[in-house]
Design goal:
Helix content is 90%, strand content 0%. The chain is mainly α.
């Protein structure tokens, strides 16, 4: 489960790279997509954190 969350986190960041560059250039639509992706990053990072804590409790 931990690996799945981590891979999902990497995938989200990889997918939004082009939009980050566009947003830096002033593209408002790309900025909106980046903000949505960062919300997804936040949620997945929280899930990853919970998975790591759960894995530590099992040990």
């Amino acid at each position: 489960m931990v690996n799945q969350h981590y891979e999902n986190l990497k995938r989200i960041l990889d997918e939004c790279e082009a939009d980050v560059l566009k947003a830096a250039g002033g593209n408002k639509a790309a900025g909106t997509r980046v903000r949505k992706a960062m919300q997804d990053v936040k949620n997945v990072a929280q899930d990853l954190r919970k998975s790591i804590l759960d894995a530590q409790k099992v040990d």
